[in-house]
């Protein structure tokens, strides 16, 4: 018999602890304290209440919780004294069937890890899909995390404990994240396509109009047809467009989607999550034979990352009439122009202008996206409400000093170009931190023809500054550039600076942000509002129609643009459910009175 939320809400605290026994290894105090948060509104609410108890526990209690968990393939497994839950998990991951070499390797890692951190290595071995990590994935993760800072690793251990508890709760409640599993699987299936030179390395790279890119488009289009979209086509810039018509002909359209291209050696979920979540919603609508009072258009944008050509937001930009014909003459690293790549793909130049949408026919644009950062992960919150996509400005520059002998030039006589840029980096870091939600980054730094025994006479650098609104961005920029000028004057060096990009902030439309908030709140998930530091296709659509975004938590510190980028089937399930709630609520709003 499966556990229910109603049972927990009517039980005593001791009964709650008994009903949730085994969820947190040998730690019934967590469930007992979480009972104070009742009534639980949903399974998601229960999960968060348990997380909050651990977050509010003492350092000793947290450490005790970690130490209550067994080592992977450790003595408890060998002696068969693991709890039933741990036995199931380690068995699913194949740890009960290690080769002697694998067992020896894990034992050495256990010893090294305990010596460094003083507690056992904790990993949710059933993984983000819930079906079990491979032994190779477990060992690779073990080796990677062995290099973490102790404070960070303690947090990572607790986050993995919460994931273990989440999967155990799903089992207790019979909660199968079927839609989350499907969205997960679609992304895995799409990731088999990768550009030449990367497949051999096991890396995912899909750049504009390559063979892998075109294969992705075809696969997404086929998936849309199977899901039940009324019309599906690949348009003149390579966007995959699926439409699910409304109940009334000529009804306005809700637009959504994200991009399917990737950075080099990137992750499987950046962009693509925002295509497959609404696809799952359409498939469920089709299964129910249900029409909404508005049309629903899902676009897999062909290009957002600017990897093969310098053009960025090419896919979403085409929908608002922003396609510069000069881009067609850009060449990739192999000398192939965009025009030639388009001809190979069978795309017609004269059709590009026809892609521009009439904003009057659209209700707005919404986008689901993996967070691409650590905030939700560290807070143990599955979904985030985006308040604004940060505006940004980028520069490339150089400081010119005087190269001189490192041994004979006194410190007070130097005109060190690199030291000047180093001072700028520290100022930019401190100035951005002062705002709380601004960021400043020097991502490229070079001393051309530098030598170990020469004071740098030239230092090239980049500067990237972002903030949730344009005035804040501009104030940050003004302060950093003024400091660059002051540093150079004080050090007797000069500089050049060229602005290479400027993008306005894209605040979420209040009414659409509120629709996301209503949907997330209905799920029992805490409302967490946050800006987006990364750019998204929603920035382009923002120029012609209202937009708002929903973030989905990433694991592995929320890392993105990296093969470690990932999310869980449970979080993807919540994203689909939030999207379904938004559609249902909007249908009620739009229904004729």
Q: Per the principal axes of the C-alpha atoms, what is the gross shape?
A: globular
Largest sheet: 9 strands, mixed
| Helical content band | 40-55%
Number of helices: 21
Number of strands: 16
Determine the structural class based on helices, strands and strand pairing: alpha+beta
**How many angstroms separate the termini?**
44 Å
Mean pLDDT: 95
Could you name the ranges where pLDDT drops below 50 across 5 or more consecutive residues? none
Tell me the Rg in angstroms: 26 Å
- Which range does the strand content fall in? 15-25%
Q: Can you characterise this structure?
A:
It contains 21 helices and 16 strands. By secondary structure, it is of the alpha+beta class. The strands form three sheets. Strands 1, 2, 3, 4, 5, 6, 14, 15 and 16 form a nine-stranded mixed sheet that branches. Strand 3 (253-259), helix 13 (273-287) and strand 4 form a beta-alpha-beta unit. The mean pLDDT is 95.
Brief account:
The chain is α+β, with helices and mostly antiparallel strands. It is 43% helix and 15% strand.
Task: Set out the fold topology.
Elements: H1 5-10, H2 13-19, H3 28-34, H4 43-55, H5 59-67, H6 75-78, H7 84-92, H8 100-117, H9 135-145, H10 150-173, H11 178-190, H12 211-227, E1 231-234, E2 240-244, E3 253-259, H13 273-287, E4 295-301, H14 314-319, H15 338-345, E5 362-370, H16 375-379, E6 383-389, E7 391-400, E8 404-405, H17 417-435, E9 439-441, E10 445-446, E11 454-455, E12 458-467, H18 470-491, E13 494-503, E14 506-507, H19 510-522, E15 529-532, H20 537-541, E16 547-552, H21 569-590
Parallel strand pairs: 3-4, 3-5, 5-16, 6-15
Antiparallel strand pairs: 1-2, 2-4, 6-14, 6-16, 7-12, 7-13, 8-11, 9-12, 10-12
Helix pairs in contact: 2-3, 3-4, 4-10, 5-10, 8-9, 11-13, 11-21, 12-13, 13-21, 17-18, 19-21
